[in-house]
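Hi all, posting the design record for the shared folder.

TITLE: backbone redesign
STEP: 1 of 1
STRUCTURE INPUT:
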């Protein structure tokens, strides 16, 4: 019951954040922002939809809810991005953008690993894909998927610059810098899960 409270709190946070962003996009509220409300709305709505879809299939496959900690860390990563925009932290501190890209990529990679490892890779029946092989395949798919999503996010930033004439891309090295810290966050999770498996011999991080 306590786990459901945390999950519903995360849902309430998502809903409140999206509602607040929509009010500002419609100019009912007039809060200033570092970049664009469209970018924040796309990120918030997309994150919630993906998380709800994953949660639904996870529960159908495993018989219990997606771990509350996944909801909490995704909500916290989204709040870091939103705070950077709301309080102009991206403009005030050069390291904030790097920290957010590092942290969010690590969170996404871990969440994807949990999901892929839980109910997708387990369906493989190849004779050579033993327990360790399934773990490595899950980790590979999670890492490459996260890196692909990171690249798509950079493309979305470029699209915003083209349409709304913003400066989301920043200086010439900003995109490469973002992707570098995305990759760094991913590699940290790969290292953590590899060490965790070598010590515990368990594929599951969270149940």
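Okay, here is what came back for every position:
SEQUENCE:
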């Amino acid at each position: 019951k306590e786990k459901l409270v945390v999950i519903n709190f995360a849902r309430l946070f998502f809903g409140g954040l999206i509602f607040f962003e929509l009010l500002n996009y419609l100019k009912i509220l007039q809060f200033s922002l570092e970049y664009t409300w469209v970018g924040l709305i796309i990120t918030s709505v997309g994150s919630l939809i993906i998380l709800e879809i994953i949660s639904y299939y996870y529960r159908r496959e495993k018989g219990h809810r997606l771990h509350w900690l996944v909801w909490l860390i995704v909500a916290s990563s989204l709040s870091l991005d939103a705070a950077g925009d709301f309080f102009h932290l991206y403009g005030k501190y050069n390291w904030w953008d790097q920290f957010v890209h590092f942290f969010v990529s690590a969170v996404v990679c871990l969440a994807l690993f949990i999901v892929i490892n839980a109910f997708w890779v387990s369906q493989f029946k190849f004779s050579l894909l033993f327990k360790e092989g399934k773990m490595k395949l899950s980790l590979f798919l999670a890492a490459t998927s996260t890196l692909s999503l990171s690249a798509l996010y950079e493309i979305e930033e470029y699209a915003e610059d083209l349409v709304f004439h913003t400066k989301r891309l920043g200086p010439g090295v900003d995109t490469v810098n973002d992707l570098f810290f995305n990759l760094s966050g991913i590699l940290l999770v790969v290292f953590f899960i590899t060490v965790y498996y070598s010590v515990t011999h368990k594929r599951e991080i969270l149940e």
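COMMENT: The radius of gyration is 18 Å.
Let me know if anyone wants the other runs.
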